[in-house]
Amino acid sequence: MVSKRISTLKKSDIKKYYNYLVDERNLKPSTIDNIHTVLHQVLQIAVDDDFIRNNPSDNVLRELKKAHCFQSEKRRALTKPEQELFLNFLKTHPVYEHWYPVFAVMIGTGLRVGK
Length: 115
Fold this sequence. Notes:
Layout: H1 11-23, H2 29-48, H3 60-68, H4 80-92, H5 100-109
Helix pairs in contact: 4-5
């Protein structure tokens, strides 16, 4: 990407960059989502500090996802036997046994790791 002053950055520049990441770098949607999260936050700080008037990355990721028709992977919960097998593995494995309490609470209560 060409070096630019932040004050000249436009929405079309962000779109072009994201399209480059998809089309030429073949990055997965989740990776681009992570990049967008950081970039959007940095640009929002620039807005808050009056370097730019508005955030040029607003809604760009949503538009990119519509334009490229990304297929999201269908997630599924572990079955009861899979949960038990996983927890037994953690409980009995010397390298991973310290993780048992964390996952036991998560599985037992329905807690999930968020972004």
